[in-house]
Each structure stands twice: as C-alpha cells, then as structure tokens.
Amino acid sequence: MSRFAAVAFDLDDTLCRHDHDVDALYRRAFEEAGVEPFGEPEELWPLLDGPPDPDDRVGYLGAGFARLAAQHGRDVDPVALAAAFEAVADESRVAYLPGATEALAAAAAAGPVGVLTNGPEDRQWAKIEALGLDDLVDAIVYAGDLPRRKPHAEPFERLTAALSVDAEETLYVGNSLSYDVAGAHNAGLRSAWLRASPDDAPGAYGPDHVVDSLAEIADLLAEGRGADGREPGGEAATTEPEESR
Predict the structure, then answer these.
(1) What global pTM score does this model have?
(2) Are 202 and 192 in contact (CB under 8 A)?
(3) Which family, according to the similarity comment (predicted)?
(4) Mean pLDDT score of the chain, rounded to an integer?
C-alpha cells in the first residue's frame, strides 16, 4: 500500500525532454529569419529569464536573442528571430526521461495519476500525444490556459479535484523548486523534487522528498522508508539543514 492516494507529475524536464538536434534547430531558425548566424545555443540558454513564459514564448526567446546579439555586436530583430525559432521547432519531438515510464507505472499502481504543466494545451498536446500520456494518466491540467499558473495554488487545486483526492494525500513530482515545489507547498500537496545533479541543494525551499532519478519514485511510493531514506512525516535526508533553508 502506498503512503499517497495519488501521484502527479510536471511534464517538461520531469517526465520528458525535447529530442531535437539543437544545433540544427538553431541554424534553421536563422535561415528562416534570413539572418546570418551568430553565437551558439549554449550561449543563448543562460541569457533566458527563468522558465519559458507560456503566454509569450516569442517575447521570452526574443529577450535572450537581444542579449546575445548585443554580446556579438549584431543589429537584428530579436523578436523575428525568436518567432522563426518557434516556427521551426517541432513540439512532438520529445522523449521520456530515464525512469519515467517506470515511475508512471508505479504511480498507477498506487492510485490515480495526473499531469500538471504550466504550458497551454495547444502547445503541450503534441508532447502528450507523442508520449502516449493521455492513455497513461487520469487527468491533465494545462495551467497555461488558467488565470493563474504554478506556483499559484489554483492549478494544483484543479488537479486534485480532477483526481478526486485530497491535497495532503497527493504527491507532486517536478524539477523546479520555484514552480513545482513552491506550488505544491502553497496548495497543500507533498512534493518530490527531481534535481538535475546530486550537488544541487534546495536552498530556501523545503521539498518533502528529493530524488535524483525518476527510478526512485517506485521506492518512494512504497510503504515505510522512501527512496530518500526518510520515514513518513520525517525529514528528507537529502534536504538542507533547517537553518540553511
């Protein structure tokens, strides 16, 4: 018997990742915009402001291209370049992260399963369809179509209502501290932070559980000690000491 009545997951960079040839996509965007290429994808990503804005992805990317153009002394229309990047991107080119299918199966054995993504349905559906997720989960909430997105409580409340479970009995798994962990906390769900590296620390956030791979979710759902070495209701062994949060 699982300690949770339901499990839900973030989508991007939690269950799946883009499966593009990033270098080819980057060059195609410049071709589409009729601009001589400059910079590299590895230079662009650090210039973006946090997670993508589902309401204005072109503006979000455009700000990054504007900074990159300034660094390379180029006079271009960054919004047109960002629009070209969006036009050539194929949202269906996604792949499950390692352990994702096993985590989904373990979650389904424990109870209803949900997905909560900050993106709108018209953008995220191609990923859902490509992954076959619609047949594997009981509810999908597209917070990008709601008045408030993560980390606000509303999308999580929609999720637990769709799954017909209480918030405190629901585990939410996500890779973002400021969106997934904070949002789950605000709505009363338990959180499992999927960190990118074992060296990453939660900082000011206090996830209930910390996992380094989705392969750990099955153990975390099992009754008794979880994958993070904690008893139900106990402190996670991999979280920061209280005074450093």
Answers:
(1) 0.79
(2) no
(3) Belongs to the HAD-like hydrolase superfamily.
(4) 89
